[in-house]
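Student:
Attend to each token:
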Amino acid sequence: MMITFTRILICFLLMVMFSNLQAQQLFQLSDDYIVKTYSERWELDSVYQQGTFRLMSYKPIYLAPVRWSSKPNDKPTSDNPDFSSTTSFPYNNIEAKFQVSFKTKLVQGIFWGKGDIWLGYTQKAHWQVFNTGLSRVFRELNYEPEIVFKYPVRWKFFGGQFRSVGLSFNHQSNGRDLPNSRSWNRIIFHMGYQNDDWIITLNPWIRLEDEEDENPNIGKYIGNAEINVAYNYHRHQFYSIITHPFNQIKGGSIQLNYVFPLKGHLRGHVQLFEGYGETLIDYNFRQTTLGFGISFADW
């Protein structure tokens, strides 16, 4: 059922794209994108509001043709034995990775004329493109549709401002069969802060119960919250994504990114990851990865 829901969301986003944007507008991701304020990105002020059903970037969009892993997860396991693989796969420790992410506003100006409801979709792919022995398979695909509510605020704090609060219903799955199927549902709370060239978002979540738990104790490994920290310096951007459990020291992950200009609108991207859960199939698997590629849209 969740896979069907994901497909419906993909079709909806495609219809929005072709009915409301020309292709040239969609892919015209200019250099000044990285210096947009948090308020501009989420249209928190009336001067930035552009109406509903316009497709725009959401989370970072990038392509890393080369990604190295210190220890490929060649035999995925789960704390639920029904979802532990009995077969070992000869994965390469070098693969390609890419992420696409878009959002569109569904409703504008609810709750005292200020709140907005957005539909977001993110897809992350890990591709064994150099592995001819496995016919260059996609090792893992993660699908992440969500409904997001954002409400603007202006709370001064340490020289900056908290600019929004909100929450989202988030579903994430890999669309695979037993024993490698993984999925979970969350209610994620949002709080966004900006201070000059710094943007910080704090996102704690509550995992919703699942009768057929494919990844028990996922919170123990990936964590119960995520914090994103982004800093813009001219045409350079540094951002990190950190997850961690509330009640223990072990667990969580950190992803460090550096985006830099190459030529014209083309920007390079270096990404370092360490910890658990780079993908859903790796939720309880720890590794270090390093990827090199190009970036199209950032925080």
The mean pLDDT is 89. The longest strand covers residues 138-157.
